[in-house]
Amino acid sequence: MNMLVAVWIPYVAYRYGFGPAENGLTLAAFGLMTALGQGLVVPWLVPRLGERQAVVLGLVVSALSLVLYGLASAPWMLFVVLAVTTLGAVDEPALQALISRSVRPDEQGAVQGALATIGSLMGVVGPVAGTYLFSRFTGSQAVVELPGAPFFAGAFCVALGLGIAYRALRRLAPRPSR
């Protein structure tokens, strides 16, 4: 997510010629859809799917959305992908619930601290990697003209995470939701 936000403005400016008004519109739409995802989709969908399936669905949708952002050849496509991306909001809350129930109460602080640390690290690494990739794959000095490269790399990372999560979820003993 941090990479997407860091690369968004240069990406849409480069690819579609967006200026401040269009940037503001897409970022507002992104914020609105994120709020709808967290406020409406997560509480409605996670109980119906179950946490394990919600994690898998969220990661699959997130990876697919990143690929589609990178492939979007017209600005209107961004808004279609954005609507689909909202379903990706289910993975993080479901995963945190599963993780918190898989450890003892006296381990909660350490586990939540580790999750926060990983999130903070990715908040630094993602934007740096994304903007670097964007700079290497756009403009006259581009290795290959591929402005969607940061999104494709992000999708690859999410797919790796999906593989890891899938293996971990298979080993995790089923427990009823709280």
UniProtKB/TrEMBL annotation:
Q: Which gene encodes it?
A: tetA_2
One Gene Ontology cellular component term attached to this UniProt record is: membrane
Show the PANTHER family listed in the entry: FI18259P1-RELATED (PTHR23507:SF1), ZGC:174356 (PTHR23507)
Kindly list any coiled-coil regions of this protein.
Answer: none
Protein's recorded name = Tetracycline resistance protein, class C
Q: Which organism is it from?
A: Calidithermus roseus
Q: Where in the cell is it found?
A: Cell membrane; Membrane
Matching Pfam families: MFS_1
Q: Where in this chain does the record put each Major facilitator superfamily (MFS) profile domain? A: 1-173
Its placement in the membrane is given as:
Multi-pass membrane protein
Which keywords label this protein? Answer: Membrane, Transmembrane, Transmembrane helix
SUPFAM superfamilies given in the database record: MFS general substrate transporter
- Transmembrane regions: 25-47, 54-72, 111-134, 146-169
**Record keyword Ubl conjugation present:** no
Keyword match Transcription: no
**Could you give a GO molecular-function term held by this entry?**
transmembrane transporter activity
